[in-house]
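Morning. Coffee machine broken again, so started the prediction first thing and wrote up yesterday's gels while waiting. Chain of 312 residues, entered below exactly as on the submission form.
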Amino acid sequence: MTRFADDKRQQLLAGLVEYSVSHEALAGATTEARRQSLVEQMVESMRRIEFVKRISIKNISPVRSDPERSLFDPLRAASLHFRNGNLDEAFWLVFLATHFGKHLKDQWRLTRDIYRGDGVSPWTFARVANNPDAFDTWLAAEYERLKGDGVSRRFGNHRKYETLRPDSARGTNRVLQSYIAWVGANRQHTGLLSEATEEAGADPKALFNYLYDSMKDVQSFGRTARFDFLTMVGKLGLANIEPGIPYLVSATGPLAGARLLFGGSKTFNLRAEDLDDKVAALGAFLNVGMQVMEDALCNWQKSPDSFIAFRG
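Came back before lunch.
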């Protein structure tokens, strides 16, 4: 991707200057250093997205879908299940991966240990949907062991305020129950997508928006979790969806980045809804998708004058 990245950098740098002159001034990116920093964040985001997309076309070892093995990876497992025609399990694993997150040090250990469950059978979508009380009972019984057995299994950075506590209003058991209720245990994910298509049409952006709005009923899945979940579904090819805007309402880092870019300050008084349109227009001009724009703005505002690669 090196030659591509170099060419893309030059295109994006030129595009930012041209957009600022011919369309709208980018008050927070008036210096070469700031434009270069923003472009580097865009390229970094493109790399991450391309890495995930390649999962859906590469050969994947069945070991990756076995939670008894240390090489278990919920995203690769989701791709395997999708290839084998099990859409429910593919979506479910992306959901679990989003809910628990990938910890910088612990990686997927928390997702793996919860999904593995009692060692008799994984907590698959079908198993939990058909008997949610069994999962609740298991988690309540295992909670103290999972917290105190000396194994480090932590939520990812985007999910650091979540909890396994079975008596918490936002505990994992309630999150899983609400997700199953959103999908509908009887209609399953095929039915969910069919209904969404009937309501919103087949346009990928309209379909993404419909699912994003309807997913507000999933416990503890706010703006970031919904965006992360649905964009991952799209990147893995589980459904033909993509965001048409960066969904800045209720955002923190991406909203601050958008305000900095268009207003010159992270606290500049620009409405999130208006910035959604501004970022979408700039992204269309640069031929850059909304996930790249959202991710790049979030990381750029942390260090606008010099590029820093952020992980986790």
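The radius of gyration is 20 Å. Going to sketch it on the whiteboard this afternoon.
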